């Protein structure tokens, strides 16, 4: 059955190209899931196929959102309860695959991407649909959380079970789930024969193919002003993810406290304002953007190398732009007063 939102939101954009060529058709839909507005565009000659593709994306994203929601009752909150009680959790193969990929990325990031610090994220008030308000947590509470410092190294996976040797492990996959969900959606699209599409969840996206003769072109949000700081034309099958301190935050006593927590200090990471990563795998791009944000201006090249990520742009607090050579070759800056540092070409 055709969902009602689809009738409301499916828009065909027709552009007539040269007179001997078929008209370009981009079908678009907007979905609300994964805590954000998701734009799906499918470039296809056939409307029914495009509608089916959009339904595939909606189904995949909704399934991951339901499964891994960190603060509404979900299979994840159940897993967290069982781990807190020291129980062995029985898991299916999809869960195994999800956690295994997160564990590998966490290890490669030296545990800066640390999806076991759910208690710390909750302490900072970010396990809520609303913006936290009031003071940051008391130092003693942060210190208490830091003495625990769990990581994915405390988690043991078999094909059917999950255990932890650390009672403080509480999963929060907010830094990785969106990427994973987009990967799943795009893999399903490819299986359905879709070759040209883009799934864009609030600026984090994976694109395949092109928009006819033009590449998909996307903007990277300016971290401190309205508008975009850069644009990127995607090439083949690519994901672009950005982590920024402007996404979820609260202000108190003139200071900003945001949602990307440095597991070493227990505080929001404070050496960058945004990090953008291009990679062919969306889950890797997502986890890496978060990890490199925490790594900051000096440590990011090393962590990027370990994570197998070679297209990175990090914007520091003073708006200095750091990037790899490979990112510099791909990104088009839309501002002209930036101080730019390009990091060596072996990155
Ligand atoms: P992102 O926007 O992808 O950088 O993800 C940020 C979200 O990931 C936060 O809202 C938290 O749910 C979670 N998070 C915060 N700090 C970390 C961390 N050090 N490692 C993994 N996940 C984190
Ligand atoms: Mg992320």
The radius of gyration is 21 Å
- How many helices? 9
How would you name the CATH homologous superfamily of the domain at 75-164?
Answer: ApbE-like superfamily
Strand order of the largest sheet: 1-2-3-7-8-11-14-15-16-18
**What does the largest sheet look like?**
10 strands, mixed
CATH topology call of the domain at 75-164: T-fold
Describe this entry's structure for a reader.
The chain has helices at 4-9, 47-67, 75-84, 93-108, 118-123, 139-148, 177-191, 282-307, 325-328; strands spanning 11-15, 24-33, 36-43, 89-90, 155-157, 161-164, 197-201, 204-208, 217-221, 228-233, 237-244, 249-252, 255-258, 274-279, 311-315, 321-324, 331-333, 340-343. It is α+β, with helices and mostly antiparallel strands and 347 residues long. The protein has a domain at 75-164: ApbE-like superfamily (T-fold). The strands form four sheets. The chain has a ten-stranded mixed sheet with strand order 1-2-3-7-8-11-14-15-16-18. Strand 7 (197-201) and strand 8 (204-208) form a beta hairpin. The longest helix is centred in the C-terminal third of the chain and has 26 residues, at 282-307. The chain is globular and about 60 Å long. It starts with a helix and ends with a strand. It binds adenosine monophosphate and magnesium ion. Magnesium ion is lined by residues 175, 243, 286-287, 289-290.
């Amino acid at each position: 059955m055709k969902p009602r939102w689809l009738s409301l939101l499916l828009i065909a954009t027709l552009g007539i190209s040269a007179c001997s060529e078929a008209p370009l058709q981009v079908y678009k839909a907007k979905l609300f899931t994964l805590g954000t507005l998701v734009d799906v565009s499918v470039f296809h000659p056939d409307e029914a196929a495009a509608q089916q593709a959009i339904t595939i994306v909606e189904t995949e994203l909704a399934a991951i959102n339901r499964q891994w929601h960190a603060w509404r009752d979900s299979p994840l909150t159940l897993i967290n309860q069982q781990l807190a009680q020291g129980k062995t959790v029985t898991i299916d193969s999809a869960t195994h695959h999800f956690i295994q990929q997160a564990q590998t990325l966490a290890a490669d990031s030296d545990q800066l991407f640390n999806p076991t610090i759910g208690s710390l994220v909750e302490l900072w008030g970010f396990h809520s649909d609303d913006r936290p308000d009031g003071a940051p947590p008391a130092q003693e509470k942060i210190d208490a959380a830091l003495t625990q410092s769990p990581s994915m190294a405390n988690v043991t996976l078999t094909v059917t079970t999950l255990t932890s040797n650390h009672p403080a492990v509480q999963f929060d996959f907010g830094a990785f789930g969106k990427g994973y969900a987009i990967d799943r959606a795009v893999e399903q699209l490819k299986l359905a024969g879709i070759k040209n599409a883009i799934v864009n969840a609030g600026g984090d996206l994976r694109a395949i193919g092109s928009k006819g003769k033009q590449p998909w072109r996307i903007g990277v949000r300016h971290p401190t002003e309205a508008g975009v700081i850069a644009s990127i034309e995607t090439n083949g099958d690519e994901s672009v993810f950005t982590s920024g301190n402007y996404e979820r935050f609260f202000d108190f006593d003139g200071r900003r406290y945001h949602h990307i927590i440095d597991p070493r200090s227990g505080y929001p990471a404070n050496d960058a304002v945004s990090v953008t990563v291009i990679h062919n795998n969306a889950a890797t791009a997502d986890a890496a953007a978060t990890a490199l944000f925490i790594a900051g201006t000096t440590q990011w090249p090393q962590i990027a190398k370990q994570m197998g990520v070679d297209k990175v742009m990090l914007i520091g607090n003073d708006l200095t732009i750091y990037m790899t050579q490979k990112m510099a070759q791909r990104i088009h800056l839309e501002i002209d007063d930036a101080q730019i540092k390009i990091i060596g070409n072996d990155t």
